[in-house]
Write a structure and sequence with these properties.
627 residues, alpha+beta, 4 domains, 3-stranded antiparallel beta sheet, 25 helices, binds iron/sulfur cluster
């Protein structure tokens, strides 16, 4: 963003106007940062200057001479080098012209630019550049494509291979890694150069390697692979990555978890997340971070395959932890993770020159490049010519379809809990999406238990449950139970109104009449983490705090205690307040982890202060009312 402003003769952020940001928004929407920063023109100008190119090349120890394109044209755009090699001024195709990015990607970019407002007026802008970031992104971006379903035969092959790795190939791989890790401990007094040489000699003579080679589907010929030694598709690292891929597939498919909830360096699975309830009965729980709704770690029961996969990962992780202890990686976050808390999907490369690589590496299932991460596992599971390029999210969808259409007791509420949805309608999309039709019909056809349940019936079920909830809440307010929020006032006003217009012989009669009145107004409860939004489909939503005059709709993405607590449609209770307290604790932790001097840290700290103020107000109100 600063580069864009600088290119447009705006050297100081304080003089940038809303119009400047609108122009930037249009440029990004039409052609991304490449267009906004006029990178093609700048690259073309550079190409004409052969002298400059020759001057700025440097020759690395291995490989071809490298040229620093970013430095030469003076850009911070990190993908410039890849772009230079691949695109050569590619025009956008007719179908995508004007909508280069998906709306979610644009939303991320606009949100990122909005941070300039969070810094405060001293260093940033006095206005938020994009107040309706989400609405703008939806208008300017491509609609998000829905993830396709995993084909049943592909899923079966992947799971079958994954089980083989967990129970057959993974343990000898772990044994070999343990052997190598112990040797690395013995080498701790050596310099890196001698460490590397000795480790390779030890590896070649290792008994554990000979045993693994008798069991694994490929012989482990090298410690690692890299640019110099490509023959080593069959290396210890490949076997470790295959084991991680297998564990990932099992955990994703058996627990409906998102990719980042499993492998993210900060939010993914960590050592210590698996808890044994009863080893004898094979009952286990695991903590998973729920990314989009709760945004905290929550316990889930997991099956024994998941538990065995996590235990195997922990075994691998112990080896890398012991290597880290003697040869600390450059990117180890000291103090941020104890032994219990180390991420399970990280590893160290082995190096001919240095024994182990200098950085810790992060596993990524969605990395399809040759020789990396899940590539070998997929080749073994699906054959050399497979064209599998499915995002990890497909395992989650597969879980939802199997759960709902296969199991006798697969009800929507349980499924939504497992998926971590706060809203049943999101869960409904998973099981009734038209693109899933062939899959769920296939599943239903083999199920002897389930009745056919159509979309309409499900909607009806949801409606019935929702109205029961609405009636319950109205009764609770009339009975003076501990409820707060603008909706309490709304219900009490409506009660006075109808009590004045007719005579009701009992509270029950009054409650029923009130419920009918409110239902006719279109109100319907939508649970959120900090309370319930009762707006439903009310015709007049202007009084809502998240109402947008521009779109004439609610901007529920802004919902949060800070936005909703004064809203006429907000209804909350002590339990929801507890959730808010937990959110506050999490915000405090996040602010500390970012550090007060960072933009993000300061923004989170401000949010926490606001939330703390609201919680204090709520507590005072509850105390005043004697709840
Ligand atoms: S501000 Fe909150 S409670 Fe009010 S309508 Fe929006 S989401 Fe619902």
């Amino acid at each position: 963003m600063f580069e864009y402003l600088w290119m447009n003769d705006i050297p100081d952020i304080s003089v940038a106007t809303k119009d400047d940001f609108l122009k930037l928004q249009r440029e990004i929407a039409l052609g991304g940062w490449e267009r906004a920063l006029r990178l093609s023109e700048r690259l073309a100008a550079l190409e004409a200057n052969e002298e400059l190119i020759a001057d700025r090349k440097y020759v690395p120890t291995f490989g071809d001479p490298i040229f620093d394109f970013a430095e030469a044209i003076g850009t911070n755009y990190s993908a410039i080098r890849r772009k230079y090699h691949s695109q050569q001024n590619k025009e956008p195709s007719a179908g995508t012209a004007g909508r280069t990015f998906s709306s979610s990607r644009l939303h991320d970019i606009f949100d990122g630019i909005n941070l300039i407002y969070d810094i405060g007026p001293e260093y940033g802008t006095k206005f938020a550049p994009y107040q309706s970031a989400l609405a703008d992104a939806r208008k300017l971006g491509r609609p998000s494509e829905r993830t396709k379903n995993l084909k049943a035969d592909t899923a079966a092959k992947l799971l079958k291979e994954a089980c083989r790795w967990i129970y057959e190939y993974g343990p000898p791989t772990a044994a070999l890694l343990e052997d190598i890790a112990s040797e690395s401990r013995r080498c701790r007094s050596l310099t890196r150069k001698y460490f590397g040489r000795r480790l390779i000699a030890y590896f070649l003579a290792s008994e554990a390697r000979a045993h693994a080679n008798r069991v694994l589907p490929f012989p482990i010929e090298a410690l690692d692979f890299g640019r110099v030694d490509r023959r080593a598709d069959f290396s210890l690292r490949t076997a470790v990555l295959c084991t991680m891929s297998a564990a990932f597939v099992c955990i994703a498919a058996m627990n409906a978890r998102r990719r980042d909830e499993i492998i993210h360096p900060k939010f993914g699975l960590r050592r210590g997340d698996l808890q044994v309830v009863s080893e004898e009965l094979r009952i286990y729980k695991s903590l998973f971070y729920i990314e989009k709704s709760y945004q905290e770690r929550r316990p889930f029961y997991v099956n024994s395959l998941t538990a065995d996969a996590i235990k195997l990962l922990e075994r691998l992780e112990s080896c890398f932890a012991s290597i880290d202890a003697d040869w600390p990686p450059n990117n180890l976050q000291e103090g941020n993770e104890g032994f219990d808390g180390r991420p399970l999907f990280s590893y160290r490369r082995f190096s001919l020159m240095k024994g182990v690589g200098v950085d810790r590496k992060w596993y990524d299932f969605d990395n399809y490049q040759h020789s990396s991460d899940a590539a070998m596992f997929l080749r073994i599971a699906l054959g050399d010519k497979h064209d599998f390029k499915a995002p990890a999210h497909q395992f989650r969808r597969m879980y939802a379809l199997l759960f709902y259409y296969q199991y006798e007791n697969g009800d929507l509420v349980s499924l939504s809990r497992q998926l971590g949805h706060l809203d049943l309608t999101t869960t409904l999309v998973y099981v009734t999406d038209s693109s899933s039709r062939a899959d769920y019909e296939g599943i239903r056809a083999v199920s002897e238990f389930r009745q056919l349940v159509g979309r309409t019936d499900l909607r009806k079920q949801l409606e019935i449950v929702g109205y029961e909830k609405l009636a319950e809440e109205i009764d609770a307010i009339l009975a003076g139970e501990a409820r707060f929020g603008g909706y309490v006032k709304f219900v009490n006003r409506a009660r006075l109104l109808i009590a004045r217009s007719a005579f009701y012989s009992s509270n029950e009669q009054l409650g029923t009449a009130l419920f009918e009145l409110i239902r006719r107004r279109g109100h319907f409860p939508k649970p959120m983490r900090h309370g319930q939004c009762m707006a439903g489909g009310a015709p007049n939503l202007r009084g809502a705090r998240c109402y947008s005059e521009n779109t004439g709709t609610l901007m529920r993405e802004k919902a949060g205690m800070a936005t909703c607590y004064k809203c006429i449609f907000h209804l909350s209770s002590r339990q929801y307040l507890e959730n808010t307290r937990e959110d506050l604790a999490e915000l405090d932790r996040t602010a500390v982890s970012y550090g007060p001097e960072t933009i993000k840290g300061a923004a989170v700290a401000r949010e926490a202060t606001e939330l703390r103020r609201i919680i204090t107000l709520m507590d005072a109100r509850l105390a005043r009312e004697g709840w």
